[in-house]
Design goal:
CATH architecture: 3-Layer(aba) Sandwich
CATH topology: Rossmann fold
Helix content: 25-40%
Order of helices and strands: HHHEHHEHHEHEHEHH
Shape: globular
Number of helices: 11
Number of domains: 1
Strand order of the largest sheet: 2-1-3-4-5
Distance between the termini: 43 Å
Radius of gyration: 19 Å
Structural class: alpha/beta
């Protein structure tokens, strides 16, 4: 019997899955900050974690609930707030930001490199560049136990941005990707193999690759936010409904 040809959509998913399985570990890693946040999320519902669920990137309520009340009117087209030269690996993986910023940032954009190494002898790249005029939080410049902070300015800018640049750091993925979903900003990645795991790569997030033409799509924002609530929080179905999310098959899942 002849095999039926794959549809374009199915073929695309299979292709991505094959590439990801070849490039990713089968057991996803959790950054120190992700461990802190996952533990907080479970504490909020009265559970002390004994082991971490490495398959899930979970945000506590104290992050996603206050952010719902932030101003989400889009003041900026692009934003990036974060470290650049904080270590050699991060610098190499984020080098593409410079050309992207030079080619696409404008007076409507927001840029702020936060690490001390980048600020040394730094020359601002335009009126959109706040690297030297504002201070920012750099997790790697403080002990792990002090990284569990809510950076309000960081999240407010992201909420007001159509697109958030989400480069890798010392890992093959970025926490900023999940934060962009939470803040209703469309992530911009360097490549399609950016995700933390095969499972997450197949969830159907909407994002752009940096080389693509970028068009802001509100329906993408809402699509991503529904995925965030369902898979990256411990929200109940009622809480998701109140937040404007999809309730089908959505409920708190405790492992």
């Amino acid at each position: 019997m002849m095999n039926k040809p794959l549809t374009a959509g199915v073929a695309h998913v299979v292709s991505i899955a094959t590439v990801l399985r070849n490039k990713m570990n089968f057991t996803p890693d959790l950054s120190p900050k992700m461990r802190l946040w996952q533990a907080d999320a479970y504490k909020e519902i009265g559970i002390e974690l004994e082991t971490f669920d490495r398959q899930r990137a979970i945000f506590p309520q104290r992050f996603w609930i206050p952010i719902q009340a932030f101003d989400h009117a889009k003041k900026f087209d692009f934003c990036f707030i974060g470290a650049y030269k904080v270590d050699p690996i991060t610098a190499a993986r984020r080098a593409w930001l410079i050309d992207f910023i030079k080619g696409r940032f404008s007076q409507r954009s927001y840029l702020q490199f936060t690490d001390e190494e980048t600020k040394r002898n730094y020359v601002p790249m335009g009126t959109f560049d706040f690297t030297l005029s504002r201070t920012g939080f750099v997790p790697k410049e403080v002990p792990v136990e002090r990284r569990n902070v809510f950076d309000e300015h960081y999240y407010r800018v992201m909420c007001q941005s159509e697109f958030t640049l989400c480069p890798r750091g010392d890992a093959r993925w970025s926490m900023r990707f999940y934060e962009a979903l939470m803040c209703k900003s469309i992530p911009v990645l360097r490549s399609r193999t950016h995700h933390r795991s095969v499972r997450e790569a197949l969830r159907g997030y909407k994002f752009y690759i940096s080389s693509q033409e970028l068009v802001y799509k509100p329906e993408w924002v809402e699509h991503n936010y529904h995925i965030f609530l369902r898979h990256h929080t411990l929200a109940t179905a009622a809480e998701v409904t109140k937040a404007g999310g999809v309730t089908s098959s959505t409920a708190r899942s405790v492992h």
